[in-house]
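During the no-cost extension, the postdoctoral fellow (Dr. R.K.) reprocessed legacy sequence entries with the updated structure-token encoder. One reprocessed record is reproduced below for audit purposes.
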Amino acid sequence: MSTLQIEKYIAKLSTEDGIKESVLEEKLQKSILKILRNNHSYIFQLLYKYDVSESKAQLAFKQINDEDIALALAKLFIEREKQKIYFRKLYSSTTNNEE
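Re-encoded structure tokens follow.
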């Protein structure tokens, strides 16, 4: 799976008709695992792009095997995207209330 597919999966969290989080987590894990095995350094670009906590990412990389690392990273991407969604809704409702 390509990086664009990872971005597509993450974007689905932002939509109301998004897929279940467990399904998304599994798909992201598989995509991330392929990236870890084929282009290890690229995962760092994705972590930066999605503004994933560096300290949390370091903990993820301390996992025993690649599958566990990929799962931990998938959870971090999802967690970060959910934070972004929360703040967008929070600030959009605050802005609407001020008008």
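Residues 3-98 form one domain. The two ends are 44 Å apart (CA to CA). The remaining legacy entries will be reprocessed before the final report is submitted.
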